[in-house]
Write a structure and sequence with these properties.
Blueprint lengths: L2 E7 L8 E8 L7 E3 L1 H6 L2 H9 L3 H15 L8 H9 L3 E3 L9 E2 L2 E2 L25 E5 L4 H12 L6 E5 L29 H8 L11 E4 L4 E4 L2 H10 L25 H16 L1 H6 L4 H25 L11 H17 L10 H4 L1 H12 L10 H6 L3 H15 L21
Parallel strand pairs: 7-8
Antiparallel strand pairs: 1-2, 3-4, 5-6, 7-9, 9-10
Helix pairs in contact: 5-7, 5-11, 8-10, 8-11, 11-15
The protein binds glutathione (GSH).
């Protein structure tokens, strides 16, 4: 059975604004409940306002924007009585736990696991052998997870080996799309697609998860290899080394590379709590839909930033794990580069700021950001992947929060500050 959900968005009492959502769900969980949405949709303005008072409204809003045009094209620009008739035939269900596309569980932001988990290998006989020109990364430069892959691609000197295809800085109704604006390609250069969703459905027509960046695509086999940034960057360290000049190979990097055998336990341990409380912690605070969830996660976030600051103070070395850059630095960097300009303002992560309250993290951040030496050890990787976009992070996050938390039901307002995006060294 297919179940439809309708949401009416009312801007003023006089003017029925539009139906912005009619979305379809597949009841695969016995805990889902049937709720009396039909009455609401058929009803008066007073009844409509009860939709927005409903504890279920956030679930509707979260699902709404991605699916609306595909599922309800006929409801767009319809006369109001047709909308009511369509709505009267609709009903909705709400899950007590998130499915692949749902971000919230009782007001707490949850990030579903990535789905495509194959690996490129240096072994020429493997399913995905490392070859120059064979792979492409689909990215949005605003996304911190995609940003990891951009940094490592430059750190490793993989520019001529792995292509980058950029989508628009913000998502549309169907998620990421190609716009031809602000560095985005006009369309997917391999298939002519306009959205990332089309690419995911090409990879797997039965795919029901989120259409996330980054995506590592195999151009030769025309398949999606992997959409998990933490794994994509690890492939990049070692599996392409035979295609690179000697100095760029991991074995020849200072300290033994980005994920050196002697530090693996330490890198993994650090990554683990930094991921949960910092990288993803900012989202748990910024996308929280209850005060309790926000309070909990904002507290954990700043406790971890304090811990990172104390760590740098204790060892006095330039990087998180000592004298040399490791993966742990790359993973923390993409969050801290966005911190004062987006998470502090838009995500309300504002107990402290990096620039005013964390002198060592601030120095660490600025050293990475301001290193523009393309011939140096860092190859200007942090600056080149951040500076062109940092001015748009605030807008990007305001837009995401507007979609995910407010379901686009309020005007989008973007904070102006801070006036200085990254302070000088
Ligand atoms: N675990 C994934 C997370 C990727 C992710 O969540 N990317 C976000 C952008 S920052 C995305 O594409 N979201 C699309 C959506 O939720 O529809 C990774 O690290 O690669």
């Amino acid at each position: 059975m297919r179940v439809h959900v309708c949401r009416l968005l009312v801007r003023t009492e006089e003017q029925m604004a539009s139906i912005t959502t009619c979305l379809e769900m597949h009841p695969r969980d016995a805990k889902w409940q049937r709720l009396p949405s039909v009455d609401v949709c058929q009803g008066s303005w007073a009844d409509l306002s009860s939709v927005f008072a409903s504890p279920w409204r956030h679930g509707w809003l979260a699902r709404a924007s991605k699916l609306q045009r595909r599922l309800a094209p006929s409801l767009f620009n319809s006369p109001i009585d047709q909308i009511y008739r369509a709505a009267a035939t609709a009903s909705y269900k709400m899950s007590s736990k998130p499915d692949e596309k749902v971000y919230h569980d009782n007001g707490r932001f949850t990030r579903p696991d990535s789905t495509f988990r194959n690996f490129v290998s240096k072994d020429a006989n493997s399913q995905f052998p490392a070859e120059a020109g064979r792979y492409a990364l689909y990215i949005s430069p605003g996304c911190p997870w995609a940003h990891r892959t951009l940094i490592v691609r430059l750190l490793k000197g993989l520019e001529s080996i792995i292509d980058v295809y950029q989508v628009h800085m913000t998502m549309g109704p169907d998620g990421w799309y190609f716009s031809g604006e602000g560095g985005s390609l006009p369309e997917d250069p391999l298939h002519g697609f306009k959205t990332l969703k089309q690419l995911y459905l090409k990879a797997d027509p039965a795919y029901t998860g989120r259409y996330t960046v980054p995506v590592l695509w195999d151009k030769t086999a025309d398949v999606l290899v992997n959409n998990e940034s933490s794994e994509i960057i690890r492939m990049m360290y070692t599996e392409f080394d035979h295609l690179l000049p000697e100095p760029l190979r991991e074995a020849n990097r200072p300290g033994g590379g980005l994920y050196p055998a002697r530090l693996r336990g330490d890198v993994d341990a650090l990554n683990d709590w930094v991921y949960h409380t910092v990288n993803n912690g900012v989202y748990k605070a910024g996308f929280a839909r209850t005060q309790a969830s926000y309070d909990e996660h904002v507290g954990a976030l700043f406790a971890s930033l304090d811990r990172l600051e104390a760590r740098l103070a204790a060892h006095g070395e330039p990087f998180l794990l000592g004298a040399h850059l490791t993966e742990a630095d790359v993973r923390l960097y993409t969050t801290l580069a966005r911190f004062d300009v987006a998470y502090h303002t838009v995500f309300m992560c504002n107990l402290k700021s990096v620039r005013h309250d964390y002198p060592r993290l601030h120095a660490w951040l600025r050293r990475l950001y301001w290193d523009r030496d393309e011939g140096g050890a860092l190859r200007g990787a942090f600056h080149r992947t951040t500076a062109p976009y940092i001015g748009r992070y605030g807008h990007g996050y305001a837009h995401s929060r507007w979609k995910i938390v407010f379901g686009e039901a309020v005007p989008l307002v973007v904070p102006a500050g801070p006036a200085v995006l990254m302070e000088a060294l």
